[in-house]
Each structure stands twice: as structure tokens, then as C-alpha cells.
């Protein structure tokens, strides 16, 4: 039995067009899309996690850089303070010179020049009118002008405390310099101030020793905001620092981000308590955050590349999976149409399993259809046989019946007996019918209520369908005669049915015991004809009828080959045909 597929107006089989329409329904996605979503579900969280880790790492690095920059600013300030303190100590030592106290400036000049040799510092002696009395930067006796930084000198004289000037352009040096001033007591000495002056660019060594990296720069500015030293450009010395106005002075090193001329700068500023100068460590924010930006850019590009590669792989794998699935869909349609489906070894184990399952289902369906066709032929064959038997029963019953009522009663009982045998045949199938069950079914309608009056004994033996039908009719006739005239006709009669297998034959004995049996004339009726013609002719049975004083005994010797059902294996070629 094969399933048929209708055709649409365009001639396409509807069974083949259904999957195409189903795939266009809303809510359905392809395998490639599902694999792409799976790749995205795996990659995107990993990228987000990587970004979070990168940000955390950048924050830790920024904190470390801030700490180092703050330490650098503080270190530069301390280094400059130590240098200024050392210069002031030098002044105090020189102020105790004997030649200075005696007013011998030439000797004082010689001693001071020798003491300051190699320090890049120069000593200036100044009187109360701010005139230079001597300057170790030039030979002794060279005509000198008044000092350039009069304001700081007057403050030192007024307070009587040492002072440190801002940067200024020295007239003698013609360079950007700074001074450390020590006022002397007013003891009618010509020298009122000792000044230790030094070129501002010499302070750059304090900045260079810090070994700044990562785009960071350091600058030392005076109280007026002029650059005294810079690690960025030495030409900036003496010029105003471009971030001075944007960066607010602080007592402690603090990191701030300021904006100047459209750009952001990270700054750390520390003030010197000795000089009032400030150390500013600064760097463009873009440079500081450059590694983070580059890392994010690389991560983004790498993530996009991975997603693109994952999408491509998902598309390729989706096609590799979708092609076998479409083949499985076609095989399923062929299975529905009753066509044979062969198993295909696919690379994917699960798809190969489905293919084998479809092939097995196809094989099972074809076997079932062959079985159905065989059973239909068998039903047709048996129906014809049944009709032939019923026709024969009707003819024989009519021949021996004297009235229509007698015919109707006898015919109905024999048909019922045939029906009971048929029920057993259907239940047994090709395996046949058990002889004990056949005896119980045929004798059952006539058996007395006293179970001791019926005895059935014999070893298990299965009959073929044809043999069961023939023997069933004979047993029905024997049971009918027993109910009318024999063992079941009286209240004391007994019936014993036994069978044994002797070599290639089966011996069946029907023995009735009827006390006070009334002898009747022996006649040949329908039952006798059934027994002799069907058992003898169909099953090659040897029939022996013995009339004892107490009842009838029938012995049937039948070849086993005529009785046993055919093996199932022998029926398979017929099924396949």
C-alpha cells in the first residue's frame, strides 16, 4: 500500500512543496543563522569580558602611573630644594671668610673662585646700593653694573633672612639665571649681600635624572610662572609655562586633567616650601591613554575579525549540515510516498543515525506492505475456501434434511462450528492452531456441565490452517453425533479424546462410553461424508470406526507432514514475491 501525493495546478507534487512553504513561515530560522547566533553568543560575552578586564588593567596602570608621577614630582622638588639648601650653606661658609671680614675682596675673590670651581655657581658681592663689588663669573677688577634682581635683594636686606629669587636674565651672564641671597650684618662693611648665582639650565639635570617615560614631561617654574627647567624643550627656559594658568597651585601633588587650546592634559603639580617654585609633571591625555585606546582598537578589530571568521565558518558548516537535512527531507517524502529509501553515511553522526532510521523505516514499511499484500491474498484464498466449504455444507445438509427447519438448524450449527475454527485460524496466524484448543472449541458447545465426563489428553501439537479447518469440521460432526446419540445424549455418558505421535503419523482416538447404549442401525450421513471425504481425501487419513457395546470409537491415523504448519522461513519468499 503506497501513499499517493496530489499535484498542484502547476504540476508540482504537493508533498514536495510543503517543506518549502513551511520554511517561509514566521519564526523559522536556518541552521546557518542558528550557528551564527551560537558563535555570537560565545564570542560577544568573551569580548565584553576582555574589554572589562582591559579597562580594569588600564585603571590599575593609570593608578600606578599616577603614583609614580606624583613620586616623580615630589622627588624633583626635593632635589631642587636640596640644591638650593646646599647653595645657601655654601654662602654661609663663605660669609665666615677672614678676607671678607678684613675687606680684602681680591683675596676673597680668589678663595671663593677656587671653592666654587666645578660647581657651575658664581659668587657676587653686593654693597648697600645694589652695586656689584665682585663677580666670580668675570675676572676681578672688571667694571660691573648694579645687580639685575634688585627687588629680591631689597627684600633680603629688609627681612635679614636668606632669599631665593625667581628666574631672570642676568646682565653679566646674558643668560637666564636665579640667585640665592644671604644678607650680612650691617657692621660698616662694604659688602651687604652675598649672592650665589647659577644658570637656570643647570636645574635640568634634576629633571633628567628622573628618567620620565610614557609621554610624561616635567617642568620647573618659578613664582611668576616662568620656566626654569624643562625635560621637554630647553628653549622654553625663561618663557611662561603654557599650562600655568590652567593648573591651580596645590600644597600636595595632585593629578588633574586640564584643557588647553582644545586638548586635554594630565598634570601633577608639587610646590617647594623652600623656594616657592613649582614642579609640574604633565602629559597629553591622548598620549597617556594611547596604550588603552590602541588595545581597545586592536581588540575591536580582532573581535570583528573573529566574528567575521565565525560567521563564515557558521555559514560553511550550516551549508554542510543543511544539505544532508534537505536530503533527509526528500527521503522522508519518498518514505511517505512508499518508495525505497537507502541509508547514507553522512559525516555528522546524528544525521547518519536519522538516515539509517529512515532506511529502516522504509524497509519495515515495504515488509509490512508485502505482508499486507500476502495477507490480502491469503484472505482472498481462505474466503474462497470458506465459500466452497459453506457451499458443500449447504448442499450436503440439504441432501439429508427432510424439512426446511431441520436444514436451517443443522446448517446454522455447522456454519458456527466452521466459524469457531476460523477464529482459531485468525488468532494463530501462520503459526497454526493447537490441537487441544481446536478440540475444546469444537466440543465446548456440546460438553456437559460435569467436567469429569470429558477427558482430553495428548502432547502439544500444532496444526496448519488447512488441517485445522478440516479436522474442525470432522470434530464438529463427531460432537454433534455425541450430543444426539452418544456420550452427551445421556446423563451418564463419557467422552475421551487422546492423541499420540507415532513416527511420521499422528493417531487421534475418539472414544465414547455410554452405559445402556441403545443400538441403532448404521447409516451414512453428512458427518460420515465429511469425515471420510475431507479427512481421508484432504489429509490422507486412515479412518477406523469401531462400534463397541458401550459406545463408538473412531481412530484416525494421519501423516504429520499433512498436519504441521509450514515454517515461517518458507513463507518469506512468497511474501517477497
Automatic annotation (TrEMBL):
Species for this entry: Neoaquamicrobium microcysteis
Its EC number(s): 2.7.13.3
Compositionally biased residues, Polar residues: 1-15
UniProt keyword annotations, A-Z: ATP-binding, Coiled coil, Kinase, Membrane, Nucleotide-binding, Phosphoprotein, Transferase, Transmembrane, Transmembrane helix
Name of the protein in its database record: histidine kinase
Coiled coil: 351-378
Lineage, uppermost ranks: Bacteria, Pseudomonadati, Pseudomonadota, Alphaproteobacteria, Hyphomicrobiales
PANTHER family: HISTIDINE KINASE (PTHR41523:SF7), TWO-COMPONENT SYSTEM SENSOR PROTEIN (PTHR41523)
Catalytic activity: ATP + protein L-histidine = ADP + protein N-phospho-L-histidine
Pfam families: HWE_HK (PF07536)
InterPro entries: HATPase_C_sf, Sig_transdc_His_kinase_HWE
Transmembrane segments: 31-54, 298-318
Region annotation (Disordered) ranges: 1-22
Domain Signal transduction histidine kinase HWE region: 378-460
GO MF annotation, one: protein histidine kinase activity
Amino acid at each position: 500500500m503506497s501513499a499517493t501525493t496530489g499535484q498542484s495546478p502547476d504540476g508540482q507534487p504537493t508533498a514536495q512543496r510543503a517543506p518549502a512553504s513551511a520554511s517561509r513561515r514566521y519564526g523559522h530560522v536556518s541552521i546557518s543563522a542558528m550557528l551564527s547566533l551560537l558563535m555570537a553568543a560565545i564570542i560577544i560575552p568573551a569580548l565584553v569580558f576582555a574589554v572589562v578586564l582591559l579597562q580594569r588593567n588600564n585603571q590599575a596602570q593609570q593608578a600606578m602611573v599616577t603614583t609614580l608621577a606624583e613620586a616623580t614630582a615630589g622627588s624633583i622638588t626635593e632635589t631642587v630644594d636640596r640644591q638650593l639648601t646646599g647653595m645657601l650653606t655654601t654662602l654661609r661658609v663663605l660669609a665666615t671668610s677672614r678676607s671678607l671680614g678684613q675687606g680684602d675682596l681680591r683675596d676673597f675673590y680668589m678663595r671663593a673662585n677656587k671653592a666654587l670651581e666645578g660647581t657651575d655657581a658664581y659668587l657676587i658681592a653686593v654693597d648697600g646700593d645694589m652695586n656689584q663689588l665682585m663677580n666670580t663669573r668675570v675676572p676681578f677688577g672688571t667694571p660691573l653694573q648694579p645687580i639685575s634682581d634688585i627687588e629680591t635683594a631689597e627684600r633680603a636686606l629688609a627681612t635679614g633672612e636668606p632669599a631665593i629669587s625667581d628666574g631672570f636674565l642676568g646682565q653679566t651672564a646674558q643668560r637666564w639665571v636665579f640667585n640665592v641671597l644671604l644678607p650680612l650684618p650691617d657692621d660698616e662693611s662694604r659688602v651687604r649681600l652675598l649672592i650665589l648665582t647659577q644658570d637656570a639650565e643647570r636645574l635640568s639635570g634634576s629633571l633628567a635624572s628622573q628618567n620620565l617615560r610614557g609621554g610624561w614631561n616635567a617642568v620647573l617654574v618659578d613664582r611668576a610662572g616662568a620656566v626654569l627647567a624643562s625635560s621637554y624643550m630647553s628653549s622654553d627656559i625663561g618663557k611662561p609655562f603654557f599650562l600655568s594658568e590652567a593648573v591651580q597651585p596645590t600644597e600636595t601633588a595632585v593629578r588633574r586633567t586640564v584643557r588647553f587650546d582644545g586638548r586635554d592634559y594630565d598634570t601633577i603639580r608639587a610646590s617647594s616650601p623652600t623656594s616657592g617654585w613649582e614642579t609640574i609633571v604633565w602629559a597629553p591625555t591622548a598620549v597617556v591613554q594611547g596604550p588603552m585606546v590602541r588595545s581597545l582598537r586592536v581588540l575591536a578589530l580582532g573581535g570583528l575579525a573573529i566574528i567575521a571568521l565565525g560567521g563564515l565558518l557558521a555559514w560553511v558548516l550550516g551549508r554542510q549540515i543543511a544539505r544532508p537535512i534537505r536530503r533527509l527531507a526528500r527521503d522522508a517524502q519518498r518514505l511517505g510516498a512508499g518508495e525505497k529509501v537507502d541509508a547514507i553515511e553522512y559525516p555528522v553522526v546524528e544525521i547518519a543515525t536519522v538516515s539509517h532510521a529512515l532506511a529502516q523505516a522504509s524497509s519495515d514499511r515495504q515488509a509490512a506492505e508485502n505482508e499486507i499484500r500476502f495477507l490480502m491474498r491469503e484472505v482472498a484464498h481462505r474466503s474462497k475456501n470458506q465459500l466452497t466449504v459453506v457451499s458443500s455444507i449447504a448442499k450436503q445438509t440439504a441432501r439429508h434434511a427432510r424439512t426446511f427447519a431441520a436444514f436451517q438448524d443443522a446448517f446454522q450449527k455447522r456454519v458456527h462450528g466452521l466459524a469457531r475454527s476460523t477464529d482459531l485460524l485468525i488468532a494463530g496466524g501462520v503459526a497454526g492452531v493447537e490441537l487441544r484448543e481446536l478440540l475444546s472449541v469444537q466440543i465446548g458447545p456440546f460438553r456437559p456441565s460435569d467436567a469429569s465426563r470429558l477427558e482430553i489428553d495428548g502432547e502439544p501439537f500444532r496444526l496448519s490452517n488447512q488441517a485445522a479447518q478440516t479436522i474442525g469440521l470432522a470434530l464438529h460432526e463427531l460432537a454433534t453425533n455425541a450430543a444426539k446419540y452418544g456420550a452427551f445424549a445421556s446423563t451418564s455418558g463419557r467422552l475421551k479424546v487422546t492423541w499420540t505421535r507415532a513416527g511420521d503419523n499422528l493417531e487421534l482416538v475418539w472414544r465414547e462410553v455410554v452405559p445402556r447404549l441403545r443400538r441403532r442401525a448404521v447409516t451414512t450421513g453428512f458427518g460420515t461424508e465429511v469425515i471420510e471425504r475431507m479427512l481421508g481425501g484432504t489429509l490422507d487419513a486412515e479412518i477406523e470406526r469401531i462400534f463397541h457395546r458401550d459406545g463408538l470409537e473412531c481412530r484416525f491415523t494421519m501423516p504429520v507432514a499433512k498436519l504441521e504448519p509450514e515454517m515461517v522461513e518458507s513463507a518469506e519468499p512468497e511474501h517477497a514475491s
